[in-house]
Each structure stands twice: as structure tokens, then as C-alpha cells.
Write a structure and sequence with these properties.
Radius of gyration of chain A: 19 Å
Structural class of chain A: alpha/beta
Number of helices of chain B: 5
Helix content of chain A: 10-25%
Mean pLDDT of chain B: 96
Strand content of chain B: 15-25%
Strand order of the largest sheet of chain B: 4-3-2-1-5-8-10-11-12
Mean pLDDT of chain A: 92
Number of strands of chain B: 12
Shape of chain B: globular
Oligomer: heterodimer
Largest interface: A-B, 63 and 54 residues
Number of strands of chain A: 11
Low-confidence stretches of chain B: none
Distance between the termini of chain A: 41 Å
Largest sheet of chain A: 8 strands, mixed
Order of helices and strands of chain A: HEHEHEHEHEEEEEHEE
Number of helices of chain A: 6
Shape of chain A: globular
Order of helices and strands of chain B: HEHEEEHEEEHEEEEEH
Strand content of chain A: 25-35%
């Protein structure tokens, strides 16, 4: 794999982050639940030990997995998330006042990231009007409907996970592991991608690229993917009612 | 006799029309998928980035990259497409989804919805609920008529923090169905569960509604 001077390709997650990760930074990381999480890069953030981080991710990770790892090591000062349901360590730190949380409606969060990456200061949305989410935000009434101003989000570093990538940083995601990853890829001052399969430029069909390489500054081939499933729901083979197996 | 969870899901499923794009919430709303009338084509959207959600997989066919918004393993169909979270909520916010079925903690007589936060308890977050109620064309709420301690849930005003203001078009509880033709009209009783009397319903419902 071409990884000489000027190359975007790094040998592993730690070497891709070592010289750019700093205390107090804002980090975005893709994933929905355990699906599409940049596991290797988050592991490297844990290993490199940066502290006082603001983490923008839809969920807070699971205990012992994904962003949950950074909570265990107390590296996170603030989370911006839409739903943090499955993390006991998160709950404990939040109740103890050790961790700040800003809840964003999921679609508002996704659009704030999209706007941030596209150079748009903010947008007016109906979502959250008349709720706690609207507190302190500019409001505008148009044709009798209330809209609130939400601003774009960017991060010092965005960590994304894709299925396949090439040495130019072009990315292809797989199924619902796409989620926030392509939006976050656009909104990092430095975006670092990890992929399950890394190929030379030309190895991916240009018509199938989801994230064009311009957004991706560094890329690594990930390893040891856990393929974790949070809720294994199955259908009975013999027909009849759907069986729920967790 | 009050309606069961499956009965309530079946009542909600009657709202699904042929060709509808539908988002189902977690809990009873998920059961609605089991009651879609044969011959009715309904496309399910999952807000984590999937249109055309299929049933749960057979054992051995589950895929960690293929989950719904409830984080359950699901399958794809010939009609399926995948997209980013921003695209998913553009669909939701832009009014492209015909109907959403959601659970609730409280509904007010003017159609306010509270379903994400109880002050003093650990807050898990609103997920996509605020976006769904703000953008989907028609919102059907399915909930128990009263809380476990007997407290009313359909009331003059919500006491819990709101998910949305004046966003509920239809309310299905285990005792009754309430509906309204537009968001400027009050709710009207549309159907009573078998054996439930009007007097009993009135007694358990502080919200104002038309008979």
C-alpha cells in the first residue's frame, strides 16, 4: 500500500492520531449504537490518553465498547448526543456531575453536522420548538409556525468508520453502518477514517463512492472488528410470530 | 375488557394506507408491522438510515451492520435503500413520511406530546422523536390510558417536558381511540374498547374531548 511522504495512509490508528490529538479538543465519531463505530480509532484515543474532550456522537457507546471506553478512562468532559440509553458508566458520571451532556434531537444533530461541513452557519427548524431544546435559541415565526435557529457543528477531529476505502480517502459504507459517518466526515477539520478493506486508488467504482476523498485526510486499515450486536432479534424458521431472542 | 398491546397495534395498523411511507417507534408501535393488512404496500423507514425495512432475520443470518432504530437486527427487502442520518432526517423533517406511530408518557387535549424525559430521573435523550413529530404528516400515539400508579396520561396539559406542541392527530389507548380531523380541532371519541363505558372513560380522562 502506498504510504510514503504525502500519503493519506497510516500504518495503524495510534500513528494516525498521535501528532494531532490534543487535550481539550472536540471529537466527532460516527456510529449508531454499536453499528458503524470507528472502534480502532477510539481505541487509539484511549491509548493516547487525551483528556477533557468534547465528544459529538449519536450515542455514548456501550459499557466497555466504542465511546464507552473513553468514559471509563474519564477522558470526556462533555457529550453532544441524541440518546445515551445503554451506558451505566455514563449515568454514574452524569449523576455525579463529572460529565456535561447536551442533548440534540437526532435529526437536528445530523443537520448541524451537515451544515458545519458545508459551511452553513445555521438553519431554522420546527424540531424542538416549544420544548426545552428551544431554550435560549432565536425563534422565528413563519406563517404561524415557530422555527428555532440551530447552528452548524464542526470538530477538531472527526473519526469515521467505512466498509471500504482507497488510498485517496474515498469511502464506501455498508448498510445501516453508514448513519452519521458520511456527515461527520465532512465536518472534521481533520477527518481520519478507518476501513475494513483498504485498496489502491482505482480499486473502487467512482460511481459508488459515498464520501469523496477530499474530506478524508488520513486513512487506516482497521482490524479486530467485534461485530457486536446489541439486540439480536430473530424470526422463527417455522413461521408464526416473530420470536425475540436477546 | 381493555384492548391488549396487540389490539392497540392492530388499531394503529388500520391507519396505514396503501403506498404509505411509515416510521414506527419503539415498543407497541413496533408491533404495528405485524398487523399490516394483506395487499397493503407500506414502506417502513428506520431513522438510522434505511427505507424498506424487512422482518427480523433467521438465526445465523443476522448482520451487525443491519439494525433498526431500536438497535434490533433486521433484514433488507428488494425495495430497500440506505442513506446517511442527515438524509434520513431530511426525509422526516421535509414531510416525506406519511405517518408515524409513537409511544407516549402524556398527551394533552390540544395534542401536545411528552415522551422523552422525566425530571429527576436519568435522562436518556429524545433520539429522533422531536424530529418525527415536527416533520411527519400524521402522528398516531399509542399508550396505556393510565400510568401504572393509576395516574391519567391524557390530560388538559402535559406536566412532563414536551416532545412537541400540537403534534398528535390520533390517540389510541387500551380503553379508547380519540381522533381529530385537523390540528385546530379538539379530539373526539372514535371508538371504545369492548365493555368500557363512556362514564368509566370520562372518569379516567381529565382531558376534554367530544363524544
Amino acid at each position: 500500500m502506498s504510504n510514503g511522504p504525502g500519503s493519506k495512509v497510516y500504518g495503524d490508528a495510534v500513528s494516525a492520531l498521535r501528532d494531532i490529538l490534543k487535550d481539550g479538543q472536540t471529537l466527532m465519531s460516527g456510529g449508531f449504537g454499536a453499528c458503524g463505530v470507528p472502534e480502532n480509532l477510539i481505541g487509539a484515543v484511549r491509548e493516547l490518553g487525551a483528556r477533557n474532550l468534547t465528544c459529538i456522537s449519536n450515542n455514548a457507546g456501550l459499557d466497555g465498547f466504542g465511546r464507552g471506553l473513553l468514559l471509563q478512562t474519564r477522558q470526556v468532559r462533555k457529550m453532544i448526543s441524541s440518546y445515551v440509553g445503554e451506558n451505566k458508566e455514563f449515568e454514574r458520571q452524569y449523576l455525579a456531575g463529572e460529565l456535561e451532556i447536551e442533548f440534540n434531537p437526532q435529526g437536528t444533530m445530523a443537520e448541524r453536522i451537515r451544515a458545519g461541513g458545508a459551511g452553513i452557519y445555521g438553519f431554522y427548524t420546527r424540531t424542538g420548538a416549544g420544548t426545552l431544546v428551544a431554550a435560549g435559541k432565536e425563534q422565528r415565526i413563519v406563517d404561524g409556525e415557530t422555527f428555532i435557529l440551530e447552528t452548524g457543528l464542526v470538530a477538531d477531529i472527526a473519526l469515521v468508520k467505512a466498509w471500504k476505502g482507497d488510498t485517496e480517502g474515498n469511502l464506501i459504507y455498508r448498510k445501516t453502518a453508514r448513519n452519521f459517518n458520511p456527515n461527520m466526515a465532512t465536518a472534521g477539520r481533520i477527518t481520519v477514517a478507518e476501513v475494513e478493506t483498504l485498496v489502491e486508488a482505482g480499486g473502487l467504482d467512482p460511481d459508488q463512492i459515498h464520501t469523496p476523498g477530499i474530506y478524508v485526510k488520513r486513512i487506516i486499515q482497521g482490524s479486530h472488528y467485534e461485530r457486536l450486536i446489541e439486540k439480536r432479534t430473530l424470526r422463527a424458521r417455522s413461521g408464526g410470530a416473530d420470536a425475540l431472542v436477546s | 375488557m381493555p384492548w391488549s398491546r396487540e389490539d392497540m397495534a392492530a388499531l394503529a395498523a388500520r391507519q396505514l394506507e396503501d403506498g404509505f411511507y411509515v416510521n414506527l417507534g419503539i415498543g407497541i408501535p413496533t408491533l404495528v408491522a405485524n398487523h399490516i393488512a394483506p395487499g397493503t404496500k407500506v414502506v417502513l423507514q428506520s431513522e438510522n438510515g434505511m427505507l424498506g425495512m424487512g422482518p427480523f432475520p433467521y438465526a445465523g443470518e443476522e448482520d451487525a451492520d443491519l439494525i433498526n432504530a431500536g438497535k434490533q437486527t433486521v433484514t433488507e427487502l428488494p425495495i430497500t435503500s440506505y442513506f446517511s442520518s442527515a438524509d434520513s432526517f431530511a426525509m422526516v423533517r421535509g414531510g416525506h413520511i406519511d405517518l408515524s406511530v409513537l409511544g407516549a408518557m402524556e398527551v394533552s387535549e390540544s395534542g401536545d406530546l411528552a415522551n422523552w424525559m422525566v425530571p429527576g430521573r436519568v435522562v436518556k435523550g429524545m433520539g429522533g422523536a422531536m424530529d418525527l413529530v415536527a416533520g411527519v404528516k400524521r402522528v398516531v400515539v399509542v399508550m396505556e390510558h393510565s400510568a401504572k400508579d393509576g395516574a391519567a396520561k391524557f390530560k388538559p396539559r402535559c406536566e412532563l417536558p414536551l416532545t412537541g406542541v400540537n403534534v398528535v392527530d390520533m390517540l389510541i389507548t387500551d380503553l379508547a381511540v380519540f381522533t381529530r380531523a385537523s390540528r385546530s380541532e379538539p379530539f373526539r371519541l372514535a371508538e371504545l374498547a369492548p365493555g368500557v363505558t363512556r362514564a368509566e372513560l370520562r372518569q379516567k380522562t381529565p382531558a376534554t374531548f367530544l363524544d
